[in-house]
Write a structure and sequence with these properties.
It holds the Pfam family Cupin_1. Belongs to the 11S seed storage protein (globulins) family. InterPro entries: 11S_seedstore_CS, 11S_seedstore_pln, Cupin_1, RmlC-like_jellyroll, RmlC_Cupin_sf, Seed_Storage-Functional. This is 11S globulin. It is a single chain. The chain has 489 residues and is an alpha+beta fold. It contains 9 helices and 27 strands. Strands 1-2-3-12-5-10-15 form a 7-stranded antiparallel β-sheet. Strands 4, 6, 9, 11, 13 and 14 form a 6-stranded antiparallel β-sheet that branches. Strands 16-17-18-25-20-23 form a 6-stranded antiparallel β-sheet. Helix 5 packs across helix 6 and helix 8 packs across helix 9. The longest helix is centred in the first third of the chain and has 24 residues. The chain is elongated and about 85 Å long.
Length: 489
C-alpha cells in the first residue's frame, strides 16, 4: 500500500513538472491581444533562387503550431531534394514546373523503356552496362536525354533493359495544392520562363512531428552556407546535406562506388545553396502536360501510400464551392477531395473576390488557419474570445496572417481583385458564420435575439433575415431597412 502511495505521489509530481516545463516552453501561446500581418524574417539566398522563412516564434504562429516558408525558384532552377519531420501542405502561387516525390519503400514506377527484355540481365542498367560496354550494336535512339556515361551505355545491347527508373514526377502549375507526408523527400524544377513561387505550411504541432517545434529541413543534396538561422544556437553553423555526416569510406561501401565519388556526394566544396541552376537540358522521365482531369470514381481500394494522389488544383472556378460572377469564388480542399489529407490532418481554402466584395464574418470551428495573400489587398478585422478587435487593417500580396481557432474574421477586398490561400490544421475544417442564411444568428429564435441585444422584434427580424447570402456579399453599404432584400446576382 505504501509502495502504491509512493508511486502515485511520484506520478503526480512528474505530471506537475511536465506541465510546468511545457508552460515555460510555450507560455500563454494563444493569449493574443494583437495580430500582425507578417513578413519573412529570414532569407536564404541560393544560386537560382531563395528560400524565405517566417519567424515561427511569432506568438500568432506559435499559437497555431505552424511555420511558413516561401520558395522562389528562378527559371531552370532546381530545388534539391529534402524532407521534413512534419506534415507539409504547399500551394503554387505562381509559375509552373516539375515536382518529384520519393516515398520510402515504394518502387520506381517511371521508366525510360516500355519493354523489358527478361533475358538481358539486370534491369537497373548501370552495373550490367559496365560489364557489356562495347558488346553488340544497341538502339542509339533510346539514349536521348541521357548524358555522359549513361549516353555511352545507351548504344549497347537491348538486353541492358531500362536506362533510368525513378519515382513519380508531376507537372505543377499555378493553383496546385500539394500534400506531403513527413519524411517524404521532395524536389522541384522550374521549366518555365517566370519564377516558380511555392508557399508551404509546416504543421509543427502535429502528432507526427516527434521533434521540437522548430521547422527542420533535412537536405539530401547541396549545402546551405547560411545555416538554419531560425533555430536558436545554429545562427553561425552552415547546414550540410545529411550524407556529409558519414565518412566517405562508409558511403563508398553503401553505394558500391569509389571514395572519390563518395566525397562528391557530400558537396563539401559546393556553395550553390539548396536551389541550383541546371546547365543544359533537364531530361527526366515525365508524362506530357495534363489536360483538365475528369472526376474519377474510386472505391477506396485503388489508392495506396505509393500511388496516393497528392495534388489538386484550386484555381478553377468551375469547381468552386461558392461562386458569384460579380463577387468571386471560394474553393475548399479537404480529405473528401484529397484522401491523403486525412493522414496529414491539414486542409486548404482558396478565395478570390472582386473589389468591394466581402466574406461574411465567420470563424473556424475546429482548426487554426494561416492566411497568405497571393494577389491584391483587403481590409481584414479579427476578433478574439474577449470580444477585442486584435487585427484591423490592410493585408497585401506576400503577407501572412494567422487566425486562431474560434477567432471571428471578416475580409473586404480593397483592390480590383483579392486572392488568398488559407491552410488549416484539420483535415476537414469547418466554419461557422455570424451573418447570412446559414449563420448562427439565423438559427436563433427572434425572442432570443430581441432579448439578448435589447432590440425590438422588428429589429431582430432585420438582423436575422436581411442578409440572405451564405458566404459572399457586397460591401458597398448597409442594406436598406424594411424587409429582407433580394439576393445579389
Amino acid at each position: 500500500m505504501a509502495r502504491l502511495s509512493s508511486l502515485l505521489s511520484f506520478s503526480l509530481a512528474l505530471l506537475i513538472f511536465l506541465h510546468g516545463s511545457t508552460a515555460q516552453q510555450f507560455p500563454n501561446e494563444c493569449q493574443l491581444d494583437q495580430l500582425n500581418a507578417l513578413e519573412p524574417s529570414h532569407v536564404l539566398k541560393a544560386e537560382a533562387g531563395r528560400i524565405e522563412v517566417w519567424d515561427h516564434h511569432a506568438p500568432q504562429l506559435r499559437c497555431s503550431g505552424v511555420s511558413f516558408v516561401r520558395y522562389i525558384i528562378e527559371s531552370k532552377g532546381l530545388y534539391l531534394p529534402s524532407f521534413f519531420s512534419t506534415a507539409k501542405l504547399s500551394f503554387v502561387a505562381k509559375g509552373q514546373g516539375l515536382m518529384g516525390r520519393v516515398v520510402p519503400g515504394c518502387a520506381e514506377t517511371f521508366q525510360d523503356s516500355s519493354v523489358f527484355q527478361p533475358g538481358g540481365g539486370s534491369p537497373f542498367g548501370e552495373g550490367q552496362g559496365q560489364g557489356q560496354q562495347g558488346q553488340g550494336q544497341g538502339h542509339q535512339g533510346q539514349g536521348q536525354g541521357q548524358q555522359g556515361q549513361q549516353g555511352q551505355q545507351g548504344q549497347q545491347s537491348q538486353g541492358q533493359g531500362f536506362r533510368d527508373m525513378h519515382q513519380k514526377v508531376e507537372h505543377i502549375r499555378t493553383g496546385d495544392t500539394i500534400a506531403t507526408h513527413p519524411g517524404v523527400a521532395q524536389w522541384f524544377y522550374n521549366d518555365g520562363n517566370q519564377p516558380l513561387v511555392i508557399v508551404s505550411v509546416l504543421d509543427l504541432a502535429s502528432h507526427q512531428n516527434q521533434l521540437d517545434r522548430n521547422p527542420r529541413p533535412f537536405y539530401l543534396a547541396g549545402n546551405n552556407p547560411q545555416g538554419q538561422v531560425w533555430i536558436e544556437g545554429r545562427e553561425q553553423q552552415p547546414q550540410k546535406n545529411i550524407l556529409n555526416g558519414f565518412t566517405p569510406e562508409v558511403l563508398a561501401k553503401a553505394f558500391k562506388i569509389d571514395v572519390r565519388t563518395a566525397q562528391q556526394l557530400q558537396n563539401q566544396q559546393d556553395n550553390r545553396g539548396n536551389i541550383i541552376r541546371v546547365q543544359g537540358p533537364f531530361s527526366v522521365i515525365r508524362p506530357p502536360l495534363r489536360s483538365q482531369r475528369p472526376q474519377e470514381e474510386v472505391n477506396g481500394l485503388e489508392e495506396t501510400i505509393c500511388s496516393a494522389r497528392c495534388t489538386d488544383n484550386l484555381d478553377d472556378p468551375s469547381n468552386a464551392d461558392v461562386y458569384k460572377p460579380q463577387l468571386g469564388y471560394i474553393s475548399t480542399l479537404n480529405s473528401y477531395d484529397l484522401p491523403i489529407l486525412r493522414f496529414l490532418r491539414l486542409s486548404a481554402l482558396r478565395g478570390s473576390i472582386r473589389q468591394n466584395a466581402m466574406v461574411l464574418p465567420q470563424w473556424n470551428a475546429n482548426a487554426n488557419a494561416v492566411l497568405y495573400v497571393t494577389d491584391g489587398e483587403a481590409h481584414v478585422q479579427v476578433v478574439n474570445d474577449n470580444g477585442d478587435r486584435v487585427f484591423d487593417g490592410q493585408i497585401s500580396q506576400g503577407q501572412l496572417l494567422s487566425i486562431p481557432q474560434g477567432f471571428s474574421v471578416v475580409k473586404r477586398a480593397t483592390s480590383e481583385q483579392f486572392r488568398w490561400i488559407e491552410f488549416k490544421t484539420n483535415a476537414n475544417a469547418q466554419i461557422n458564420t455570424l451573418a447570412g442564411r446559414t449563420s448562427v444568428l439565423r438559427g436563433l429564435p427572434l425572442e432570443v435575439i430581441s432579448n439578448g441585444y435589447q432590440i425590438s422584434l422588428e429589429e431582430a427580424r432585420r438582423v436575422k433575415f436581411n442578409t440572405i447570402e451564405t458566404t459572399l456579399t457586397h460591401s458597398s453599404g448597409p442594406a436598406s431597412y424594411g424587409g429582407p432584400r433580394k439576393a445579389d446576382a
